[in-house]
Amino acid sequence: MTTEELLKRTQIPPEYAHLWDTPPPENIDLLVRLGKWKAEVSRHLRDLASYLASAGRLSTEEQSLLVIHIAQYVGHDPWVSDDARSQAEYILENYVSPSVSLITDVLSNQVRPVFQSHIHPRVNASTGRALSRVAGGPLGSQDLYASQSWKETHPGISSVLFWAVVHIKSPDYDRLWHLIIPPVMALLDDYEVAYKLRGISVISRMLKAVPPDLLRRTGVDELIFSSLEGTLVFLHNPKTPELLSIAIPAIVELVDLLLPIRALSKEQGKQRFDRLCSVLGEGIIGSIWVHASRDVATIRATIDQVPLLVESLGVCAVRYLKPLVLQLLDPLYPPASGVQRTVSPEANELRISSLRSLSTVIKTCHDRIHTWKKTILDAVARCWVYEFENPEANTPMIRLGLLEVTSSLSSACPNILEYDIPRLKSAYPALDDIFPQVAQVTNQELGGDTEDECSARSQSI
């Protein structure tokens, strides 16, 4: 049996083209059939590994076929079992340092034909450069979504692209640009979130090695910026939190690559500021926090990215101090009298994330935070008293978060130790536990401890 015949047995069923999550329970026949196939493909991969061990050196064409079939099993996609992943990783161990000729062959002879009929309307397929206008006119972008047969034949093609960008060295991007950008942009701008997520993963990995000058020279930097910023309006989808969690760091990484803070002219500094403000100000504060205010998972996903954005902006983040403080304090306030507070794990995680981000905001904007010190102290005190009076709602990590915020605030505004805190303690004796020695709790500890470790340390303070 030849290598090609063995590889044909690993072809992913077309049912996985749009099936990224578990099928509906009522579709029992499909579940059974796909479960049987997953067991069989693991056996086929083991047979392939055994065959390759004694097959000798493969030709470049055979290696290329091997990569495009097997790389689709390296990941956590629905068609990948733990055993299949282990077998695929074992097979690909022989290609941890592939030659440029092999990568070129994979992209040119395997990946490129898959997307031949699905060229991104803003990309020149021959050069990988951005087009000045949409090919095909105003409706040209619709051609990208029409008859996407590649999803049925190669639903795991993003894993192959990821394999490629992992192994492409910085000097080689120039010669491979026209092969890597068209399919990556097709993934990044796909209408299905599952494929968009994978496109962002490929872009994020690519940014670790791609020369920034190549991005600028080809105009692809603007295409990527536009696509990534477009994810900020992709709301009310089950995968929105995951999408935001990887898209926002990718935007910041792209900004840091193209506009590194240590080597900026005045004009470039303004560009960096504008880019980051468009994400934090227009994307998160002005859009997501307004239109998805009741979606706890989405709000938490953005709050988790606040430290990254605030630290990237530095002192310029004071521009958004008011909306940041108000949003981050909102989950801390106890419910109105007679209203039962939500103590679900999701709600508690939101409070923990808010406290962690609030501490970063206080430290970064310490020169201006004094205008909000009483508002912050009020929310912290109310939350602490509520936690103290309602043991069923008490979470050690929330207590540690409150301690960290108070520590950060006392460092930024030392006068609260003399004036504001004594007044609060006289009104609420329960606050005696939060204000003394608050500086010993660090944000790093808050982010790295388990619930049991947090419980033990919070009780010792």
UniProtKB/TrEMBL annotation:
Belongs to the TTI2 family. InterPro entries: ARM-type_fold, Tti2. This is Uncharacterized protein. PANTHER family: TELO2-INTERACTING PROTEIN 2 (PTHR32226). SUPFAM superfamilies: ARM repeat. It comes from the Eukaryota. Coiled coil: none annotated. One of its GO terms (cellular component) is cytosol.
